[in-house]
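We keep the chain:
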Amino acid sequence: MANDPTGGDDIIVGTPEDDIINGLAGDDRISGGEGNDVLIGGNGNDLLIGGNGDDKLFGGADNDTLIGGFGNDNLSGGVGDDKLFGGDDSDRLAGGDGMDILNGGNGEDYMLGGNDNDVLTGGEGIDRLTGGLGRDVMTGGTEGDIFFFRAGDSEAGAGLRDVITDFSVGEDKINLASLNLDASQISFQSFAGGASTVIAIDTDGDSVVDFEIQLNKATGVSLSDLII
């Protein structure tokens, strides 16, 4: 490494080999460079750049920015309002706690927002997006993307439900399999002058809608667009 980590604000550059770098406390800037690197930000508002290779980046506490670069990278934001950018190839991004922004970039990416209100953008490739808890806004990008929902991932109401901004009918899918629903528990409601759709779900069978998904600029949505 070009610099040894300290408890302060560090600038650390990895070697051409496979590095393990822990920035410890402080607002650190860590670049892995070549090789399959493991970068750990620790406490502080850190910038982690994987570079080439299949890298693993862990932001830790506070508000971090993680950039995977080239290769199949694994990015974990941890606690705080983090920004994660996968880059090229197929990456795995997990926001963790806080209001996070995730961008998969090119490749077939797996994205999990985590807790709080997150923004997920898949980009190129067939991406798999899970918003997690909170009111999340998700954009799949090009090709047929899959949006996963679990119990508690969304709520009912205009200011509470998750939003998918670019759902493509007949190409994208919404996976509700973990909710154990049947077709009678799902309805489709148009809004915004009929230009968009809300999927309304009664998860517990009491005839009260308690789970909604808003699909902006999507019409003609049907059960064939869902995986139940």
Observations:
- Residues 167-228 form one domain.
- The chain has a mean pLDDT of 96.
- Residues 12 and 30 are 5 Å apart (CA to CA).
- The first strand starts at residue 11 and ends at 13.
